[in-house]
Amino acid sequence: MRERTIKQQIWLNQQEKNLLKEKAKKVGLTESESLRSCIKGYKIKEQPTEEIKSFQRDITGIANNINQIAHIANSSRYISKNDLDYVQNKVIDFIMKFEKRIYSRE
Questions:
Q1: pLDDT band, residue 67 (cuts 50/70/90)
Q2: What's the whole-model pTM score?
């Protein structure tokens, strides 16, 4: 059985309709779900872009590498220079890639 049993019709002009459609698409919801979320007072955020998702994956990979090295360091009390250099280079590459993208927007 249908969860929502009350149909509510609203009138919009073309500009409002286009704005609703655009915003719903950005947040990954249907137009109805977007309106219901607004009514409930939810704070609606846009879905991350593919570029942001890529940066998140990069950061996660770097964090995992650091965690693995920290685990080895805790158990053996030793970290190889190669491990440190690898993580350092990954962090530097990430920062450079991130800054290049951010500053290219200005």
A1: confident
A2: 0.51
Under 8 Å between Cβ of 69 and 83: yes
Task: Tell me which residue range forms the domain holding 83.
Answer: 50-103
Helix H or strand E segment including 102? helix 81-103
Mean pLDDT rounded to a whole number for the chain: 86
Q: Angle formed by the axes of helices 31-40 and 14-27, to 10°?
A: 90
Check whether residue 33 and residue 15 sit in a common domain: yes
Using DSSP's 3-state secondary structure scheme, residue 77 falls into: coil
Q: Do 42 and 62 lie in a common domain?
A: no
Looking at the structure of the chain, the number of domains it has is 2
**Torsion angles phi and psi, residue 93, rounded to 5:** -60, -45
d(CA 65, CA 70): 9
DSSP letter for 31, please.
Answer: H
**Quick one: 43 and 54 in the same domain?**
no
